[in-house]
Design goal:
With 209 residues, the chain is α/β, with parallel strands linked by helices. The protein is built from seven helices and nine strands; from the N terminus they run αβββαβαββαβαβαβα. The chain has a nine-stranded mixed sheet with strand order 3-1-2-4-5-6-7-8-9. Pfam families: Radical_SAM.
Length: 209
């Protein structure tokens, strides 16, 4: 990468944009609401069940001027969701400051594995076993969303719930390919442990992005 461009990426003035789209939030607390998604490339957390593995290699997603990303976003919605990949691999300060200057609500979906940068109205923390969140993200998360692939994920979920702040909303979400098997297990678990809620990937049931 050109040195000048690399400097802009490092400062957050350019970002490896994979895709951007206007749709319905499908998961967690804000499910069913319209939002504009900014998906950034780059992730080294490496979940084997990830449904956007094409986001992992940031080099496949050319650096895009952050100002242009913001200009596109503000045309569609007052709620912007930054996702990935793992967006906290990049400095989010410039992006979120520009989005906030347009009076937009700014959400992030993150594994929490990197330093928390940026100013956020909502932080959805979806921790992964291979690379655990930083304490700062635990402290500031608004919702904890644990993906359930097998029974050990319930243990992991409780471990993670013990680390987040007391106001954090707790969700268990079935991994899509295992949903028929794990949904009954999640329902049973939530009924026995009602501090948890069930999250579903409703956008997949609705057949939308």
């Amino acid at each position: 990468m050109d040195k000048a461009i690399q400097q802009l990426v490092d400062s957050g003035e350019m970002l490896p944009l994979m895709e951007e789209f206007y749709t319905i939030q499908g998961e967690g607390f804000h499910k069913g609401t319209a939002a504009y998604f900014i998906r950034l490339g780059g992730c080294d957390v490496g979940c084997h069940w990830c449904d956007v593995k094409e986001s992992w290699n940031a080099d496949l997603h050319p650096p895009t001027e952050t100002i242009k990303i913001v200009e596109n976003a503000k045309k569609y919605s007052d709620t912007i969701v930054v996702t990935g990949g793992e967006p906290l691999m990049w400095d989010m300060t410039f992006l979120t400051s520009k989005l906030k200057s347009e009076n937009l609500k700014v959400h992030i979906e993150t594994s929490g594995a990197y330093k928390l940068t940026g100013t956020w109205d909502w932080i959805c923390l979806s921790p992964k076993k291979l690379k655990l969140p930083t304490q700062e993200v635990y402290d500031q998360a608004h919702e904890l969303k644990v993906i359930v692939y097998n029974k050990d994920d319930f243990r992991f979920a409780e471990e993670q719930a013990s680390k987040v702040n007391q106001n954090c909303i707790l969700y268990l979400q079935p991994e899509w390919s295992k949903r028929d098997k794990v949904i009954p297990e999640i329902v049973d678990y939530v009924m026995k442990h009602p501090k948890w809620k069930v999250s579903l990937q409703t956008h997949k049931y609705l057949n939308i992005p």
